[in-house]
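explain this.
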Amino acid sequence: MSNEAHVQRLVDHAVQSYGTVDIIVNNAARFVFADAAHATEEDWDRALATNVKGYAFAIKHASRVMIDRGRGISGDDVKGYMLLAFTHAPSFTYTCTLLLYTCRW
């Protein structure tokens, strides 16, 4: 999910196979399984690339399809309301912010 070209191909494949994209669920996540003293910069780069860039790329490419149809929902909207866990709050906030700037209300 951290490679924009791969995400674009995934969305293109979904549209070719099913005709559209109705919902996007940003569920991919990568974690750093090391204590603070031993986590490397590469560990954090991989986690942030998936958890931040991956969300942005998925919304970027899927929202174009949804906007063309005049509707759509991000699965993070649902997840954010159903799971009030602090671990999901940053991704939920980021997703909502991207949607606000991307979609017409």
